[in-house]
């Protein structure tokens, strides 16, 4: 209204529209429109007085309603649901041309869609959140550069883990190569050590490593993260799904790291980048004048907020990751491509794996049923024989040294037969040696030794022959020096597929 009054005053002073436009008050066309209205209202007369701002605005801003309907009005019933479902104006315009030979321009549809969106989705207003020193910190991930990792010897994808204190805006930043639960927990612990204390509340998005089920009212927290919160005494505050504005401080912090730390900086590896990050956070980032607080984040932190944080536990709690698991048919559970055995009777049961820095434990109904040293190379396995089925356990426990030791206890003839079986150049006869020694369970060791002696005499040191000798009770039968083929045939009466009759062999 100030500009309108100024233009009318100049018109009363006989200034031209060109001169008024040259001073930047309005275009010549606009000045002519105002001049026409002023003449009709009699405002250009020397004695005339202008009305107040409200009346002046009502007169000058009246515009005749457009009588030209939009060409898109005909398709209103179809366009509205398309706009509600998020279909773009260009797609709608192309469809109308294909389907209805629509003659209107793309701008026509674009204006119509914009008008509908304004009615469907009114602008959302936001209110800034205010925090007290030490009250809260916000956490988020941000995409990092592709860097060489000294631990694996190749280039890997990276992400920035950023924790920003809400009051001072001081940050902890770490470059990581995984977004799993274990990394998430370790980064929290590193951040608390960096700050020298713990905020009362941690505000997060809904990453899978922290929230297993996102929900507006009742999010489901990952078991491992919940245990960490209990150990460090902080509240987990998950933002509503698809509402990142609730953690705008760390969102801005991630952008600042990407735009200020990464460009024009030589990063040799992930490990080198993390060393440079610590220097950058306490230098450039910490000593800048923040755009919202207009103060230095590091100074605000060291002077005020650090003293308001909760103290860290005297003994750092052990980071433990929990994960649901099932027992495979090979009697092992899997964690990060490594295998750990558990009792075979738990096949088909719901199990939990607890993973720490050095140990992997398996739980069933809150009871620990297995414990192993942690493995790190993919494909490695840790197996305890007591977890295996009886038949598999017997096979693995009764190995070659065991068979040789047991056969020595039985006798020299038994030892010779077992040695001969275990040194076969072509076949693996460990099971046959185990079965021969198992005959001690039914027959005495002395009888087994005599049976082995008889089998050696006939050069038939195998399980079937020794078993038949014991079953027929001929282990103590006298053995003549001149043994006929008929006597030899009494040892084994079975018929092989290609066996010749004994009388043919004799002749």
How does this model look, in words?
The chain starts with a helix and ends with a helix. α15 (about 410-420) packs across α17. It folds into five domains: about 1-60, no CATH class; about 70-120; about 135-310, 2-Layer Sandwich (Nucleotidyltransferase, domain 5); about 320-390, no CATH class; about 400-505, no CATH class. The longest helix has 18 residues, at about 270-285. By secondary structure, the chain is an alpha+beta fold. The strands form five sheets. The protein has a five-stranded mixed sheet, with helices on both faces. A four-stranded antiparallel sheet has the order 10-13-14-15. Helices cover about 40% and strands about 15% of the residues.
Secondary structure elements and pairings:
Layout: H1 2-12, H2 17-22, H3 28-41, H4 53-60, H5 76-84, H6 89-100, H7 106-120, E1 136-143, E2 147-149, E3 154-156, E4 159-165, E5 171-176, H8 181-195, E6 201-204, E7 211-213, E8 220-221, H9 223-232, E9 235-238, H10 248-261, H11 270-287, H12 297-303, E10 321-326, E11 332-335, E12 338-341, E13 350-355, E14 359-364, E15 367-373, E16 381-382, H13 390-397, H14 400-410, H15 412-422, H16 430-438, H17 445-457, H18 463-472, H19 485-489, H20 502-506
Parallel strand pairs: 1-6, 6-9, 12-16
Antiparallel strand pairs: 1-4, 2-3, 4-5, 7-8, 10-13, 11-12, 13-14, 14-15
Helix pairs in contact: 1-3, 5-7, 6-7, 14-15, 14-16, 15-16, 15-17, 17-18
